[in-house]
Specification:
The protein is globular. The longest helix is centred in the first third of the chain and has 17 residues, at 14-30. It has a ten-stranded mixed sheet, sandwiched between helices. The protein has a five-stranded mixed sheet with strand order 17-21-14-13-24, with no helix packed on it. It is 22% helix and 26% strand. Helix 7 packs across helix 8. The chain has helices at 14-30, 98-104, 107-114, 144-160, 174-185, 214-217, 225-233, 260-272, 320-328, and strands at 2-3, 45-46, 59-61, 72-76, 87-91, 117-122, 167-172, 192-196, 245-251, 281-283, 289-294, 303-308, 344-352, 356-365, 371-372, 375-379, 385-390, 392-395, 400-405, 411-412, 417-425, 436-438, 441-442, 444-445.
Length: 446
């Protein structure tokens, strides 16, 4: 493992660097300029001990695992890293690099404040764009960049005993497209994503080896919500678990990845998460911004979309990363905050005997819009196995279980409830599940 640390003394000039990035990104997106070599002109040294990297310095990690497209991995671990830290994967734009993303955003200074780890993947191919178009990239474990990024995550979680329930992705331009791809390929890995100036999963797909899809970049590819949802679900066939939440940012004057891609992403992720395309809440958090939330009204709604009036492709600015952390639930030290009230509530009771039990579960939609199609996720206590059920289909029979609606109870209106239940065997622990999610959103206990 080699290390290429950055001195934290450069942080007072962060605002200047952000301004320079803001000026250069549109030019970089539209040209084939070659970025400077990663870490050029910086001191290099080896990490002083096996495993963990030096704290408070951007460090390159090598030999991190399977890496079919020869990506480079950079890691930032704060001095005050928390036990079982969260991990934020910050993905750069075309012609950029991991160190560029480090210098051009403030995720490392926020990591210093909140104790999470930041992982910066870095492309080595000549375009410095991530592969979001090949058939290999658009399926789980298929190869190319997503596999390398997954290896980086695995290395980080092993080395730092990171919280596998708090892995997040965010990216700008090509990195935003990769954020969409990562959440489609690995829905079981990521808790949420935030995409700045991106396109839906699968929109950039090509079969001729080209990295660029002009129809998608031009905003001329439109599909139904279900068609977009099926593309994302098709990356991991058979997966029925919780899906990551998504935050989407786009400027109305984007001339590189045009603005219709904003609406197509909303279609895709509302469908994937099983929530209405009608906003639960609309507001203006800042002049020229329109923010819509879907499936919930709070800071951690299933889908949040921010449209920036009159802004072009280069929309990222200082302060936006803090809004990303709020959506992720990482803007406090220690564990992520408790789920916001107002989306769903679940009550569960158990009637047990020596080797078996029946459980009755009531799911209440406490939001303001109907839930049309639902999946209830929960984990059975050790030793319990579902042997039958009613009101839903249950898969798998043990461990992390998903209960999926049946034909007669597909929709849960605002304020309404559905009652389901199951029979299970047990080896001594006859308790009810401790926590539930509805279409990926954590529910309050009844």
């Amino acid at each position: 493992m080699s290390a290429t640390p950055h001195s934290t003394a450069r942080r007072p000039v962060r605002s200047l660097l952000l301004a320079l990035v803001a000026a250069l990104l549109p030019l970089l997106a539209a040209t084939a300029l070659t970025a400077p070599a990663a870490g050029a002109g910086e001191p290099a040294r080896d990490a002083s001990r096996a495993g963990a990297v030096p704290a408070a310095a951007l460090t390159e990690v090598t030999n991190f695992g399977t890496n079919p497209s020869n990506l480079r991995m950079y890691l930032y671990v704060p001095e005050s890293v928390t036990p079982k830290p969260a991990v934020v994967v910050a993905v750069h734009w075309c012609t950029g690099s991991g160190p560029d993303m480090y210098n051009g955003t403030e995720y490392d200074t926020l990591a210093d404040r909140y104790g999470f780890i930041v992982l910066y993947p870095s492309v080595t191919r000549s375009s410095k764009c991530f592969d979001v178009s090949s058939p290999q990239a658009l399926r789980r474990g298929g190869g190319s960049d997503p596999v390398g990024i997954k290896s980086m995550i695995d290395w980080t979680t092993r080395t730092y005993d990171a919280d596998t329930g708090r892995i997040f992705a965010t990216g700008i331009s090509s990195g935003a497209m990769m954020t969409n791809v990562l959440l489609g390929d690995y829905p079981d890995v990521f808790a949420a994503g935030a995409a700045f100036s991106g396109v839906p999963f699968g929109c950039f797909a090509t079969t001729d080896g080209s990295e660029w899809n002009s129809a998608c970049s031009g905003g001329t590819i439109t599909r139904t919500p279900k068609e977009w949802g099926d593309l994302a679900r098709g990356a991991y066939p058979g997966y029925t678990g919780a899906r990551p939440r998504m935050q989407i940012w786009h400027g109305t004057q984007d001339d590189v990845l045009r603005y219709p891609n904003f609406g197509e992403q909303i279609k895709q992720w509302t469908n994937v998460l099983g929530v209405s395309q009608t906003p639960s809440n609309t507001d203006t958090p800042q002049s020229g911004w329109t923010r819509t939330r879907y499936g919930g009204t709070g800071d951690r709604a299933p889908v949040e979309a921010v449209s920036l009036q009159g802004v072009g492709h280069n929309l990222y600015a200082q302060g936006m990363a803090s809004r990303v952390l709020t959506f992720f639930g990482l803007d406090s030290s220690g564990p992520a905050p408790q789920p916001q009230p107002g989306a769903c509530k679940v009550t569960a009771s158990v009637n047990a005997w020596s080797t078996g039990l029946t459980a009755s579960v009531t799911v209440t939609n406490t939001g303001t819009t109907a839930v049309d199609g639902w999946k209830l996720g929960f984990t059975l206590p050790a030793g319990q196995t579902v042997t039958g059920g009613w009101g839903a289909t249950y898969t798998p029979a043990s461990g992390a279980v998903t209960a999926t609606n049946v034909a007669y109870n597909t929709t849960i209106a605002p304020g309404a409830s559905v009652s389901i239940g199951y029979q299970a065997s047990h080896g001594g622990n006859s308790a009810a599940p401790a926590a539930f999610t509805l279409n990926g959103t954590a529910c309050a206990a009844g």
